[in-house]
Amino acid sequence: GQQVMQIPQYQHVQEGEDFTTYCNSSTTLSNIQWYKQRPGGHPVFLIQLVKSGEVKKQKRLTFQFGEAKKNSSLHITATQTTDVGTYFCAGRGTGNQFYFGTGTSLTVIP
Amino acid sequence: KAGVTQTPRYLIKTRGQQVTLSCSPISGHRSVSWYQQTPGQGLQFLFEYFSETQRNKGNFPGRFSGRQFSNSRSEMNVSTLELGDSALYLCASSLDLHGGTQYFGPGTRLTVL
Question: Sign of the CA dihedral B57, B60, B65, B66?
Answer without folding.
Answer: negative
